[in-house]
Automatic annotation (TrEMBL):
Protein location: Cell membrane
Single GO MF descriptor: transmembrane transporter activity
A GO CC annotation given for this chain: plasma membrane
Name this polypeptide is given: Ribose transport system permease protein
Transmembrane segments: 12-31, 51-84, 96-118, 163-185, 215-237, 257-283, 295-315
Keywords noted in UniProt: Cell membrane, Membrane, Transmembrane, Transmembrane helix
Membrane topology according to the record: Multi-pass membrane protein
Main location: membrane
Pfam families, sorted: BPD_transp_2
Length: 323
């Protein structure tokens, strides 16, 4: 019995690490180019933007909520930033103004979603679904569905540039934000309140936690991160693309769940989400390296999500903490 408990404890603590090791080994066998520094740095860049979006999604999931608007917020924010940069001919002032405007738009959309949920008691699924439609429609409306070109090389550096010629700046942004929000969840009052609200909202309210304010603030942060990801996307592609971010909400949810988050709330971590994003990106990367079509990737991702959920259920009986 003791050996079984020890085995369960190992699985509980290291299930994501085990999955990562397994897929890294499989990938290394299938492609000799996988375990190269260049491919790893490419993985970091490819995963950075969905990874930033997934941070915000994890915060929302910890509350027991869901945010379906992140992909549309990303697209609209990127379009606003692109339009400003293009109209002002890619000057330094236009880049700063465009970035701030894009982030502000994302923040405002996230806050509005949070207010609709917290103040007017709309279901989070419905409120964020409505904002998803509004954001996507607004992104298409800005230029009648046409991309924005001519953003300049200076703007491209933010999302598509490299330090020392190798390390993607967008990847560094992702790592820094992951560290900041992981620290916040563990050591701040706000971070601990998310676990409390997600674990038992009524008990959190009775203990004096301002649940409505925290709901609005959490969705606002999700919108801010999606807005920043939208700016990085436009910068990376050197194009404002109104269809950018399609499906990002599903990838963000999947990464959080694979990383150990519970859709019921109260359980999850930013570090786990970081690993979940990397695992999904590894699947995409190895399929690209061996030349398999994208629809195989979708089947594989779906299977991994199901497996991760079943694994989480298997170990949940012994799970008593947040991490």
């Amino acid at each position: 019995m003791k050996e079984k408990m020890n085995f369960n404890e190992i699985i509980r603590k290291y299930n994501l690490a085990i999955l990562l090791v397994v897929f890294i080994l499989i990938s290394a066998i299938l492609s000799p180019n996988f375990l190269t520094l260049g491919n790893f740095l490419n993985l970091l860049q490819q995963a950075s933007i969905p990874g930033i979006v997934a941070i915000g999604m994890t915060l929302v999931i910890l509350l027991g909520g869901i945010d379906l608007s992140v992909g549309s917020v990303l697209a609209f924010s990127g379009m606003i930033a692109s339009i400003i940069v293009e109209k002002m001919n890619g000057s330094g002032a236009s880049i700063l103004l465009g970035c701030l405007a894009g982030i502000a738009v994302g923040t405002a959309m996230g806050l509005l979603t949070g207010v609709l949920i917290a103040r007017f008691n709309l279901p989070d699924f419905i409120a964020s679904l409505a904002m998803m439609e509004i954001g996507r429609g607004a992104a298409l409306l800005t230029t009648s569905g046409n991309p924005v070109f001519g953003l300049g090389d200076a703007f491209h550096i933010l999302g598509g540039g490299f330090l020392f010629g190798r390390v993607a700046i967008s990847g560094l942004f992702w790592i820094i934000l992951t560290a900041i929000f992981a620290f916040m969840l563990k050591y701040s009052i706000f971070g601990r309140s998310l676990f409390a609200i997600g674990g038992n909202r009524e008990a959190a309210m009775l203990s004096g936690i301002k649940t409505k304010r925290n709901y609005a603030l959490t969705y606002m942060i999700s919108g801010l991160l999606s807005g920043f990801a939208g700016v990085l996307t436009a910068s990376w592609m050197s194009t404002g693309q109104p269809t950018a971010g399609n499906g990002y909400e599903l990838d963000a949810i999947a990464a959080s769940v694979i990383g150990g988050a519970s859709l019921s709330g109260g359980i999850g971590s930013i570090g786990g989400t970081f690993g979940g994003v990397f695992l999904l990106q590894i699947i995409t990367n190895i399929f690209n390296l061996v030349g398999l079509p994208s629809y195989y990737q979708r089947i594989a991702k779906g299977a991994i999500i199901i497996f991760a959920l079943l694994l989480n259920q298997f170990v949940s009986k012994g799970k008593g903490g947040k991490e």
